Amino acid sequence: MAISGRSLSRILNQQSSRNEIGEIKWHSENGFITESRFLLKPGAKPQLLGSIDLSSLTYETHYPNRQDTTTHYILSVRRSTGRFTETYSAKDKKGELTTVDKTGVCAKLN
Fold this sequence. Notes:
Layout: H1 5-12, E1 22-27, E2 30-35, E3 48-52, E4 56-64, E5 70-78, E6 83-91, E7 97-105
Antiparallel strand pairs: 1-2, 2-3, 3-4, 4-5, 5-6, 6-7
């Protein structure tokens, strides 16, 4: 999907101002990413946000943005190749959906 610079700046200007920390619960070679229990109200069950295994990582969340709507974010990483896809989508105040896909290769730091 081709996207104009104006559309990209609209999405990036809608970033959340809060930080979110997740937890990974491992079961053998698979992990499940959930909301951090430190961010939850007492008695609330953590929401599943993603998974990680030998081949891939997937993470999905949503958050309120500066336009008083909700931004949906998805990150997928293929571990064998290091390729990733990020998707941001949000409706503006008029209800029009804007979606931005970014792809690339993860940097390998030593």
